[in-house]
Amino acid sequence: LYLEDALSHVHKNQTAIIKVQPSYLDPKLNINEEVEYIVKVLELHSINDENLEKKLETAQKRKEQGNSYFKKDQYENALKKYNAGYDIIRYLSFETDESIKKRVEEAQILLRLNRSMVHKKCKRYKECIEECDEVMKIDKTNTKALYRRGCCYAEMDEYEKAKTDFIQVKNLDSSISEVDTQLSNIIKKQKLIEKKEQKLYAKMLGGLVNGTEEKKEEKMEEEKKEKMQEEKKEEK
Fold this sequence. Notes:
With 236 residues, the protein is mostly helical. The chain contains eight helices and two strands; from the N terminus they run αββααααααα.
């Protein structure tokens, strides 16, 4: 864990010994061995008391830490960092200054896209779609969000929605070669489904036809028996 993760469990006026592995240290330190910190917490303050620049800087740091966890396949830890980063700047989008608002929205988009990737990796497709939807409320032409949402729709067998997203991505950026592969896969799956439905329909129709023929034969057999009985009566 990062130093700050351990510190979150330490209260004011407490002293803690914290050991941090090199992979969770700031790369700028250039340290390749475990580091032991002896920390005494004297004061606590909220990130909400910081200025805009500090909040954006801290949110960026949380994103980078989340990326580090993601590369280690620690997806839930990555998500916690992305959530922490987003929470810091969640309400800054209400800023009236357009230049500030743009910076905040760009940061929010990146964190939401990262969260969507975690959900996709963990096969939480609905959650991934929700994150992508929120991104596109800010940026309707975000190809990453569109492509990722399309992939999730495809995984959920919602092929028409997936095709709509992939076609839009292709129209926005034709250089994304994966789109053609996704569209090709969807067409193949839809054809397979169509063939299965046709076979099922033919089977059902065949059953109806067979059933009708059987009834005809039964009726003919009954009529034959009745006729024979009538002939016997006449003979008597």
